[in-house]
Amino acid sequence: MPLHTTEAIVIGGYNLGEADRIIPFFTRRLGKIRAVAKGARRVRSRYGGTLELFTLGQLVFFESPHRTLHKINEFSVVEPFAGLKDDLRRLSRGAYLVELAGASIEEGESNEEIFLLLRDALTLLVLHDEPRLLRSFEIRLLRIVGYLLELYRCLVCQSALGPGAEPAISPTRGGLVCSTCLSRAPDSVPISLESLGFLRSVLHGGLEQSLAVPLADPCITNLQEVLRVCITHFFGKRLRSVAFLSLVE
Q1: Which of 74, 90, 144, 200 could form a disulfide with 60 if both were Cys (CB 3.0 to 4.6 A apart)?
Q2: Same domain, yes or no, for 50 and 142?
Q3: Helix then strand then coil, % of the chain, to nearest 5
């Protein structure tokens, strides 16, 4: 069996048999994979607490030919992101980030850009418990997977937005719809001009820069509604972690 070494983030885990665990990873080189940690649930397991959710490490695993379930040989912790596990709100936000990243690609599909985005987001979440970080992560992830929202012109009449406009975002059309054309995009969700400005700015900067962009609480709520509708439309389902996140917030 081929042996692989790659940077990886633990994005889940569930029991197998009496002593083993199946661990889903988001890896830097090979995308999303699942691997068995033999004996991980035994008291004297060599893994200890290394395979906990969010943990960033160096993964060495044996690839199983013609199968999607591989075998972990070694996992060395680089960063446990312990700060995400000690705070319920950070935990819920981190769980949302890893589920969203995992849902964005098929198993075995490589995407280093998403891996780096997730790694940076978890790093920042330890330091900044900020909803703007989640919104920035969402819009950048959608761009990476090819769902780039049109944020400058109405997708129905092609007109640019003028001062005092009352635009909306249509998930099915893939972006802006002006107030005149709303009847032709019934799934549209209103978006404020301030919220729209935030989305435009974060697409051209990094996650950390988005934390410096001023944003009023009503706009944060508005962006959450808009982006969750778009994400549900794009992935065709509501992520399980959203319920936990909504309960905590």
Answers
A1: 74
A2: no
A3: 40, 20, 40
